[in-house]
Amino acid sequence: MLRRTADLPLRTKLIGSFGLVLVVLVTLTGTAYQTTTTNQRADDDVSHSLLVIGTAHETLTSLVDMETGYRGFLLTGRDEFLEPYHEGWRLTDENLTQLEALTQDNPSPSARWHELRTQVQDWRSSVTEPGIALRRDVDGGRRTQDEVEAMMASGLGRRRFDAMRQTIAEAIKAEEALLAARQQARAASHERLLFVLLVGTLVAIGMALLLATLLTTNIAGGVGRLAASARRLAAGDLDERASLTRKDEVGVAAQAFDTMAERLQTIIVRNDTILTTAAEGIIGLDKDARLTFANPAAVVAFGQPLDLLLGRGIAHRFEPDREREDGEPPPSVDPITQALATGTIEYGADAVLRRGDGSTMPVEYTCAPIRERREVIGAVVTFRDVTERRQAVQSLAERAQELARSNAELEQFAYVASHDLQEPLRAVVSYLQLLERRYRSELDERADRYIGHAVDGAHRMQRLINDLLAYSRAGRRNDERQPVDLEVLLDRILKSLEVSIEEAGATVTHDPLPTIEGDLVGLGQLLQNLVGNALKFRGDEPSQVHIAATHQNRAWTFSVRDNGIGIAPEYQERIFVLFQRLHGRGEYAGTGIGLAICKKIVEQHGGTLWVESTPGDGSTFRFTIPDPGGTS
Ligand code: ADP
User: Fold this and answer.
1) Band of the pLDDT at 583, cuts 50, 70, 90?
2) How far, in Å, CA of 321 to CA of 140, rounded?
3) Which of 41, 164, 343, 433 has its CA at 20 to 30 Å from residue 236's CA atom?
4) Which atom of ligand 1 is the closest one to the Cα of 592?
């Protein structure tokens, strides 16, 4: 029974219990009220009967008074005897009226009192009133005392009076019987009232006990168990579960508690796993920077057993790395102390961790404060060994330096080689030309052709060497940065290209161009090559060239668009390589150095150069130049 009630919702249980108590109380009150009313009525009935009996006795007395007075008057003829007679009549009349009123609802006694009234009236009209008149006539001398006595002796009066007495006696007897019945009823009613009160009290006590048991075992019991489980969980017993199977609110709360405990356990176990398996060192500190926790990686890094570390101040073990000269000067307050004081997350870069044996380990760390109600109560420091990274960065820097050096050497070599090659080549060309001039008539036609080829080859070689020289020079003005007004620069270039423009029947348009920081000669070469190519590689249509400039992501993007022959996708990378061309020398003049130089110049400005093109539909060469001072 208790088990089944445990499953009912608490609300139902409480409303049900109090509703039941209410119903019982209302029933009890109703019964008590009803019984009291009945009791009251029984009391009234008894009083009524007593009043009737009393009044009947009084009526008898007043009749006896009448009779005595009447008889006295008959014997003496003295009027004072008539006074009790009259008084007796008045009282009798009064009592009879009262009795008739008292018994009007009860036909049998009511009829009896009516009968008595008739008897009294009869007695008066046929006995006493004629008797009194007779006695008065004796005094007037009209009748004699003997006649009076004869009348008295006739016994009529006595018989009538006895009949009246008889009627009263019977009425009293009947009323007394009624009284006895009513008294009995009253006693029974009293008993019933007592019984109702007793039963009511017992039921109330029973209900109170039942409610108390229900509330304590059913509700307080469950809640108590839940509270105990919560206490055990809070104390660290993660396996604790309330395990209440009931289905009421307490059961639902217990289930929610169990789910919460389950989740908590999962989270804690997961966090534990993360902490213990993390490659980073993770330590907990109290507000005075004393160690409260350290994961295995941290213990290994410190190189000391955990027992020796716990409770020790450790902020001083994270030192700035004095060997790193390029870093910023170390802050006056170390990041851990700072984080604990200000409650902000602090970072320690360029730091070393002083290990237990006095050695140091390069580290990077983060100190995140822990707050409880706005108060900083400690911090978590996460640190990682950056030895390898530092080594990698250092070797990368060394490699870059090495590369720059070998590049410079290579450029120097190319320059020197191309420069020094020019001289012997010039000698070869001169002597070939001498040969040609001197022996033209002596040698046969074939020899002349051969010499012609040799001179051609030497000239080509000269051009190539010149290009190579130009290419290597393009890298030698690296540092000559100055503001370059591209608008002015382009105007100059277009002027120098006037003949080509006219030949191509070209229209060259451009957006407003900015002034940028760069190498004037290099940028001039870049624009000249791109615009020159746009004019050179034109199609059948009159050439249209447009130079545009947009600024975004802190860089300028320039484009040189033409409506020329275009470039097939597979060649769009190759054209930027030194001496790579897509056409024979007869088709379009050139050596294939222009775009290689352009690429070098753009890259030296920190940008990139690329082409977008559809064969037959023109090409757009784009390049970016970073603009660190720009706004967008
Ligand atoms: P060159 O102009 O001396 O041939 P470049 O390095 O300037 O050398 O160009 C390499 C090749 O790229 C060119 O031979 C040509 O095939 C292609 N090219 C360059 N610019 C254009 C252009 N605007 N339209 C079509 N092809 C182009």
Assistant:
1) confident
2) 164
3) 343
4) 8
